[in-house]
Amino acid sequence: MKTTIEGGGFLIQTSTPEQTFTPEDFNEEQHMIIQMCNEFLDKDVLPYLIEIDQQKEGLMPSLLDKAGELGLLGAAFPEKYGGLGKDFVTATLVNECLGGGHSFAVAMAAHNGIGSLPILYFGTEEQKQKYIPKLATGEMKGAYALTEPGSGSDALGARTTATLSADGKTYAINGQKIWITNAGFADVFTVFAKIDGDKFSAFIVDRNTPGLTFGEEEHKMGIKGSSTRQLFFENCIVPKDNLLGEIGKGHIIAFNILNIGRLKLCAAATGAAKHALSISTTYAKTREQFKVPIASFGAIQHKLAEMVIRLFAAESSLYRTSQWIDNKEHELEAAGKQDALLGAAEEYAIECAMLKVLGSEALDYVVDEGVQIHGGNGFSDEYNISRAYRDSRINRIFEGTNEINRLLTLDMYLKRAMKGRINIMGAAMAVQKELMSIPDFGSDDAPFAAEQKAIANFKKAILMCAGAAAQKLMMKLESEQEVLMNIADMIIDTFQAESILLRSMKMQNNNNPNAALALDATRTFIFDAADRISHAGKEALNAFADGDEQRMMLMGLKRFTKVDSFNTKDARRRIAAKVLETEHYFFV
Length: 588
Description:
Order of helices and strands: HHHHHHHEEEEEEEEHEEHHHHHHHHHHH
Oligomer: single chain
Number of strands: 10
Low-confidence stretches: none
CATH architecture of the domain at 423-582: Up-down Bundle
Number of helices: 19
CATH class of the domain at 423-582: Mainly Alpha
Helix content: 55-70%
CATH superfamily of the domain at 423-582: Butyryl-CoA Dehydrogenase, subunit A, domain 3
Strand content: 5-15%
CATH topology of the domain at 423-582: Butyryl-CoA Dehydrogenase, subunit A, domain 3
Structural class: alpha+beta
């Protein structure tokens, strides 16, 4: 499936349903993988959540071994290194399906993502042959050591150093790393340090390397079964051959791997949210108050339906982007490019940042309302929704905080605009001219015309606000973080709205039995998104515009965020009826 949309280009280009990959397009093998992952969770993970949270000796490594035996750890690794060589969409699907595994999902994602991919994509052939086959099967477990006490979001502010020996054969690493997932049992670490105090670089460090010691397990709010320790390096001697990539190019490794990590975090969050939705739906059907199941109450149905709607939006955005990355990877491979997947992920780095935000926040909504549906029982450890609630919170911090990812979204747009990669300013100028013209009050009765017009207008609202902010604030814009995050929120909502609209149209075209409910979800999301986009736009415009300019743009914003009236209550009730019937997320 060929896509014509480049990274970030959805904002100024249009897509068709036929160009859009959706979960309804999963092939037979992918459906088999879904079944295998679900069986693995049901048999080997979910019955042992208490023991996992207690970090029972050897349990987590043994679960990773079992996942390795099933091929789940090395699904995306090339066959020549012992992997299954599956496409990026399939690898994303594995992360989603195992996302309901609580702490296990974190350990697995850290292992086959940031714990392995730096070696796979930046290692020498000798390094790959030594480590990747064992990482693919789980014989070796991987971890990633970037964060330090004084450098979280500011990764390049790291103080850990690496000093080349006089004979030029080894490096001595000195410093400290914190919040290292899998540190309690990992066999190999990707460690970032500065050579000569300023050349940010990466190294492969084996667990048994002299000079490497470990702190005690951290006592965390959630993901208690995930091993999290500090690493201490005191003249930790590693061979020169363990330098990963080029000297001074560690940031390229760190940031490129994070692009993939952000998308996969969205996948895992989506899987976790589906699991929490099922728990909450089953509880709502069995819990009685006033002699009737609470599922019969409109307030509860509203919550369940909104869970489905936000999941539908996150899932649609996730797989739309996953296929884009897969297409781009094949395009770069055909052109003879090395590290094609990293190049593809970099192309869609804007979308990856947005996915991280929207996926983690969708999960937070689902588990929060899940606790509310459970009432007092939701606050008890006897009910799994309390674990889901605690485990969810870290996702808004992992892989760059959501604030950082919102800022990155706008930063990447502006940088690409300045480099001529995407013509944002040209599109923004066109919107400014439109503001001076008479609005088009015509109507189109064609199917989905109103929804398509709403999405097109949302994009105009974004371009108007972003273009005006860039012109008015210029170099000061990067310090106006509130404005940047307002506009990022507008973009994130619009990306989701367009993704679910295209999916809904495709379902309708293919006579999918859930097409009517998909349209309910789409129209409800667009109706609510219009208010959110309007509010964010007002906050942004009021922060930097004034006088006639402000009044004109506020009028334009009102025009661009006006949508047709829609009975969202009845739409949500129809969605709730279906999820209560199935007791699980029913799309796909």
